[in-house]
Amino acid sequence: MRKPNYDKYPATVIDGNILQGWGEIRDVLASKLSEKAVLAVDCYTGVYEKELIDELSLLQPAEIILVNELYKDEKVIAEMTERFGYVTNLCLADYFDSEKLAAAQKKVSESNKPVIVLGTGAHMVAPEATLVYVDMARWEIQQRFRRHEVKALGIDNRNEAVSLQYKRGYFNDWRVCDRYKDSLFYKVDFWLDTHIAGQPKMIDRETFFKGIEKTSTKPFRVVPFFDPAPWGGQWMKEVCDLDRSKQNYGWCFDCVPEENSLYFEVNGVRFELPSVDLVLLKSKELLGEPVEARFGKDFPIRFDFLDTIGGGNLSLQVHPTTLEI
User: Fold this and answer.
1) How far is CA 243 from CA 143, 249, 253, 308, 325, in A?
2) Quick check: 196 pLDDT over 70?
3) What pairing do the DSSP bridges indicate for beta strands 115-118 and 38-43?
4) Of the candidates 97, 106, 156, 122, which has an alpha carbon nearest to the alpha carbon of residue 44?
5) What is the pLDDT of residues 80-97, one digit of tens each?
6) Burial letters for 281-308: b for 16+ Cβ neighbours within 10 Å, e otherwise?
7) Contact at 8 Å (CB) between 125 and 103?
8) Burial class (CB in 10 A: 0-12, 13-18, 19+), 185
């Protein structure tokens, strides 16, 4: 039998600065906290905030301000985000209670003691602070949805059906977070990878952009992911060297940049980030000007393998075309 040669872990290889483990990361952040007295730890939705709180509290700040406590009431957020099926036009600022936000901004600006601001929107609370961004790929968020582990943006929906969690992410939370993150790229001092719980890695701004630039100027692949289907087959198990004990694999999402991860191999260490970051930063380079003019910062092509060999009949799918007027 031919040995599978499908690369499940493609990466852009770069030199740079990378830290591994909470001990090394805390040492660097402790020095930054002593310099500016304020550390802003901003997060994409789906991050394990408890892990961040537990680990960063060991820095012994005078206070940790949790950003989600500055949002509007959960019922208000539920009402303003209830319409699924349409991509939201909301922005992160719409989530904040303006009086709570102003009070927190005042407290941070006047404090002379070490303060950590943590959560989605931390930079809005402390714009002058050292900024750490904890990013998260949508595929990993979906796994956490399935285990009912993470809250939505401003709402605790962990007990909802996975399909509803996904719809909220797709139509609302991910759009809000991407718009916000797009405004932060050149302000972030450190990028934190917590895709594997308890095994964090951190790179600095220079290393992040070195990886983005190199990836955008050469042929590249994002990190594929695999999922079963009612009609799924057995072919991919052999070709892609997957877990033979699984019932089937129907899907290989080989390039769906909005949901896949991207790997940087920094000094031999793999760092994971959402591949949508590359699309947001380099849409013109990736798509060309005519395509970007039409689709903006949305990658309009996806590459999948569908496996029905030894499985069932592929389900009917309808993909409407854009109406020409």
Assistant:
1) 17, 9, 16, 17, 48
2) yes
3) parallel
4) 122
5) 998 878 899 999 999 999
6) bbbeebbeeeebeeeebbbeeeeebbbb
7) no
8) middle
64: its two tokens: 């940790």
Q: What are the contacts of 176-180 at 24+ separation with CB within 8 A? A: 176/88, 176/90, 176/91, 176/92, 176/95, 177/44, 177/45, 177/92, 177/120, 177/153, 178/276, 178/280, 179/91, 179/92, 180/91, 180/92, 180/120, 180/121
Please, what is the end-to-end C-alpha distance for the chain in angstroms?
Answer: 54
Residue 213 CA to chain centroid, in angstroms?
Answer: 19
Q: Are 111 and 37 in contact (CB under 8 A)?
A: yes
- Taking residues 196-201, what's their average pLDDT? 97
- Looking up tokens 């909301």 gives 90
With CA atoms as reference, report the closest residue to 280 among 304, 254, 262. 262
Tally of CB atoms within 10 A around 63: 12
Q: DSSP 3-state assignment of 249?
A: strand
- Return the number of other C-beta atoms located less than 10 Å from residue 1's C-beta: 4
